[in-house]
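# nightly structure sweep
# worker-07 picked up a monomer target from the shared queue
# config: single-sequence mode, recycle default, output format = structure tokens
# input follows
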Amino acid sequence: MRLLSTTAALALTASVASADYTLHVIHINDLHSRIESINRFDSNCNAESEAEGKCFGGVARVKTMFDQIREKLAGENVIFVDAGDQFQGSLMYTTYKGAVEAEMMGKIGFDAMAVGNHEFDDGPEKLAEFIDAVSFPVISGNIDVSQSNVLNGKVMNHVVLEVGGEKIGLVSALATDTVETSSPGPSVIFQDEIDSLAADVATLEAEGVTKIIALNHVGLAKDMEIAEAVPGLDAVIGGHSHTLLSNTVEDTPPYPVMVGDTPVAQAYAYSKYVGHLTLEFDADGNVTSATGDTMVLDASVEPDADIIARVGELAGPIEELKARVVGSTDMAIDGDRAVCRTQECPMGNLVATAMLERVKDQGVQIAIQNGGGLRASIDAGEVTMGEVLTVLPFQNTLATFELKGSDVIAALENGVSQVEEVKGRFPQVAGLTFKWDPTVAPMEGRITEVMVGGEPIDPEATYGVVSNNYMRGGGDGYGVFETGGMNAYDFGPDLADVVAEFIMENGTAAAALDGRIAQ
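# output follows
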């Protein structure tokens, strides 16, 4: 297989598409630095559980699965793609800042990758370093990086792959709220996803490309909207919402989801699944069949030995830190995104309580933590620092400030404004309770009651608030923290350290649900 730039594609004589052309699209999304295998809570698996066959995923299993697919489909038309968010989520990223992800993607063998929002977590510079380190194209059509002195010329709008004598166009879009959920900086300009994709599809069609796939990082709901709104797309491969599509797992949408004649596919997250979409085209480049499923990477998939050895080398310097026991819990602490982004959750209670406990002697009364900052659950038994860091991998620090009661209410309104889309801004709290009404339109009064210290919140009073530095700077739509926050102070301790110390001193009883959030 060889990569064709759009310029090279223009130079080619347009070939007549063969009837009954079949393309296999193998895809993952949202690895989130799960370089090592994971347990059923999506956090790092230990050696004992691995020996017992209880672990999933990890790049060594992805390598094995990809190699098996290559062998099985030898001589057929296959592409291997990633729908974004390789960065952030484990100590591998915290320690090596993308270099490990680049190395492993090279060993596994990808043909293209979409930019995910978390690729910007350490600014454009780390994304630029990652792109320089990989040999495949990294694409995103709706971001203009021409004003960036580090990304200009590195992120491609779209690419054309030649596969079995046919041109396969890949277009891409990144969620426009990345300016709120990550740190792209002012030099990265976002354009509307649908408008951008439509323009890129039109460009490829003008070049004679009749088979076009969107490789997006916008979430399933937006992918379905795109599939309906953008003419000329033959399939959409997505990420961002961590959605499992499956024809065998109960209570999941089917794989693929069909929007009219356009298949939409996604493969959960954290390397637990690999998606395999088989597309059949007629002579005019129209999809006549879209079939496939996600495949779980459980213990039946033997990890690649060479990658296991290399991961062991990389893990050595951080193993001691990860193994340090900070406490224990009699129960599993649920930090699942589907829960913590829509309702009160045990992990949210634990983290918010730990935050408030750390600064309550400073007169702080309220803690608000974004549900999207909680990245894993913790199983029952010993709690290690590695587990805490998997839950809280972003190296966010505590930030304190004062806020009028009316602005606290406005912040909570923002927090519940995108529950239907399972967005990360959902507020996990301590020191206050609130009720909200999902039948009310977003930002139109969903918050119906807020109590602080057992008393109704006073819109005119000033309250001490603790959050994290990301939210204090306006992240996840909490602009009111940045504009309305008074006497702001980025207190300093890493949130993971705060939670670990709280567990050591107090245990995990604070994780129990106690009615802080209700409808």
